[in-house]
Amino acid sequence: MSLTAACCNTPPTQNAHWHNKGEEATLTREIAGKKVKTYRTGPKTSKRGIVAIYDIFGYHPTTYQFFDRLAESHGGFQVSVPDFFPQGGYDPNGMGDFPKLLKWIDDNGDFKKNHIDDIIKAAVEDLRKDGCTTFSVIGQCWGALMAAKAASEEGHPFVATGGPHPSFYSIETIKDVSAPLIILASKDEADMVPVIESLKHRNFPIECFHKRFDNMHHGWTGGRGDWDVPEQYQAGLEAVDLLGAFYAKAASAAESKL
User: Fold this and answer.
1) Which of 66, 73, 100, 195 gives the lowest tally of CB atoms within 10 Å of its CB?
2) Partners of residue 60 on adjacent β-strands
3) Where does the record place the Dienelactone hydrolase domain (predicted)?
4) Mode of pairing for the β-strands spanning 37-41 and 78-82
């Protein structure tokens, strides 16, 4: 798997701010004997659920804003953002140290070893209890890989997957994805068109989607983003709109079969 250099070299922003619209909750089911908190946002009347996976910096003002706005887009979604890194995200002081970052991800962000798969499933269970009937999964950077893995599991419930500025995406790493995929790449990622094209032969209910934001850096919708900067804010709103439209379309297609 390849990791974009910007993921290793670009630190989180320090001056971003946002007044959270959601609330902290605890997943009903314990994972590996531990309680897991999650950030819940969006209209509680929505029957469309999204499990969201933040980037390696964990909760961050721009990350909260991104998911709050996504939750309110295109008719609304109930969004659950579990805390996969309860000890905190990656130390910004370690930026630029590629081996250190990869080891940290292996120690803290492995899909199976760190029970990320189980946490995602528990988040789905709670969304279902709260009235959701369709489910999607989205991630930022490293989280986008986790979202792809979740939508590659046998019997998964997701009607759509993907996310902005993905890390570790390649034809090989997404080859088992069995849900429509959306990729919003920044200028720092490799060409993602072949990745999307590799799924075109799948008989998905809706087409996969790709757009490249050539004026945005890796991580602009998450910990590396500062939406007080007008260009980042406008690109962020466009990303939210594209993602919301894609997930709403996937949910609508699934609802038509319920």
Assistant:
1) 100
2) none
3) 37-189
4) antiparallel
Angle 12-18-20 (CA atoms, 0-180°, nearest 5)?
A: 115
Total domains in the chain come to 1
Residue type present at position 186: S
Extended beta strands in the chain, E state: 23-26, 37-41, 48-53, 78-82, 134-139, 161-164, 181-186, 209-213
Residue 150, judged by CB atoms within 10 A of its CB (0-12, 13-18, 19+), counts as buried
Considering the entire predicted model, what is its pTM?
Answer: 0.95
Domain that holds residue 155: 5-255
Number of neighbours of residue 203 by Cβ within 10 angstroms: 4
Q: How far apart are the first and last CA of the chain?
A: 37
Describe the crossing of helices 116-129 and 142-150 by its angle, rounded to 10 degrees: 70
- Strand pairing class (134-139; 48-53): parallel
Structure tokens that stand for 171 in this block: 């034809």
CB atoms within 10 A of CB 201: 7
Containing H/E element for 145? helix 142-150
Residue 58 tokens, joined: 């964990």
Crossing angle (nearest 10°) for helices 230-255 and 61-72: 40
59-107 pLDDT, tens digit each: 999 999 999 999 999 999 999 999 999 999 999 988 888 899 999 999 9
SS3 content of the chain, % helix, strand, coil (to 5): 35, 15, 50
What region does 165 belong to: left with phi over 0, alpha with psi -120 to 50, or beta?
A: left
Express each pLDDT in 113-170 by its tens digit. 999 999 999 999 999 999 999 999 999 999 999 999 999 999 999 999 999 999 999 9
